[in-house]
Design goal:
Blueprint: H1 3-9, H2 13-29, H3 33-60, H4 68-73, H5 77-84, H6 109-122, H7 132-144, H8 149-161
Length: about 160
Amino acid sequence: MNITDLCVKLRLPYARDNWHQLVDEAKNTKQDYVAFLESLLDGEWHQRLQNGQQRRIKDAKFPLKNTLLIFKEKNMIAFLFRNLRNWKRFYLLRTKKISFLLAHQEQEKTHYSIALGIDACMKGYNVFFASVPNLIVDLKETMSQGGLSIIENLLKIMTSLS
């Protein structure tokens, strides 16, 4: 077996794709073995981190790809903080937070929620994003499949917190 085959078996995609280049670079700069291994493993770690972020963003099913930078560029942070006190948040279970942003129409709730969700994905958290119409459709599907007990318990906890 050669290095490429071993990288495939060990599931090291960065090492599989870049080991030739890193070996040449190590030869040219007279890099020691430890520095070579550090650069190889660091590249592997960074690629896995990036792949995880992309997977979490894809799994969250955001309808748009807004980031907090968009709000900073449009100077909307002040607007959001002015309206933030009108939005209600519910925090559930000790380690998990479920947030609902409730406000009048045209207050950028969806865009801000997406931006916060993408920021959370980038920090390593898993996010589930749903608009009210999509949430209602999901609830109806769950009811038809007989799996509503989990959602009923969740709603009981939410109403006890409000």
